[in-house]
Design goal:
Keywords: Hydrogen peroxide, Oxidoreductase, Peroxidase. One of its GO terms (molecular function) is catalase activity. It comes from Microbotryum intermedium. This protein is extended. It is built from five helices and six strands. The chain has 207 residues and is of the alpha+beta class.
Length: 207
């Protein structure tokens, strides 16, 4: 079967399943949380690495997790979408805030997102008159401003990069990301997306 068709079918079935089960009181919500129903159609990085290195699992992975609950024991029927109004996330979703807090505090050694990279520092000089476009003091002709440029490393984890101007009025940042497009529309799956790009602690594979 065409891989694209399989992914579309999987997405459709998962959405239907989540919508139906989330409306039935007392129904086990774990099936709606399982996202790997069609993930075995093609060999992924883990299988390829296992075939090359000879490292294999003792037994197939099992989805035997307990119910997904909040910090207060509330069963969460849908762990992939946050509360929204017309598609815009709202800041009154306790489950979203719990996930973001747990994600942000999961490491104390380094930042959980954009942790590594390198920087270069120098000066930024305005050589052409653009005063008709801006009133910013550091963009006036002849102004010299200390500046810094951050570069992402080559790891798969998405890396931020920015140009920072140390102006007399305060720091001015031009921020960006090493991916060509932003990766999530719903912030509920933001932490999962970042973790999916990191190495597996069990075997250190990019799977």
């Amino acid at each position: 079967m065409n891989p694209t068709a399989v992914r579309r079918l999987a997405s459709t079935l998962q959405n239907i399943q989540a919508n139906v089960l989330s409306k039935i009181p007392g129904v086990d919500p774990r099936p709606a949380q399982r996202m790997q129903a069609f993930s075995g159609r093609n060999d992924g990085p883990a299988k390829i690495a296992s075939r090359i290195t000879g490292v294999t699992q003792d037994e197939p992975a099992k989805d035997d997790a307990v119910l997904y609950t909040s910090n207060f024991g509330q069963v969460v029927a849908d762990s992939s979408h946050c509360l929204n109004v017309g598609g815009m996330p709202v800041q009154v979703n306790p489950i979203l805030l719990e996930r973001q807090q747990a994600f942000d505090r999961s490491k104390t050694v380094e930042r959980i997102v954009h942790p590594c990279g390198s920087s270069a520092f120098g000066t930024f000089t305005v050589k052409h008159d653009i005063s008709h476009l801006t009133k910013a003091a550091f963009l006036q002709p002849g102004t010299v401003t200390p500046a810094g440029r951050e570069y992402p490393d080559q790891a798969r984890n998405p890396r931020g990069f920015a140009t920072k101007f140390y102006t007399a009025d305060g720091n001015y940042d031009l921020v960006g990301l090493s991916w060509p497009v932003f990766f999530v529309h719903d912030p509920m799956i933001g932490p999962d997306n970042i973790r999916s790009q990191q190495r597996t602690p069990r075997n250190f594979f990019l799977d």
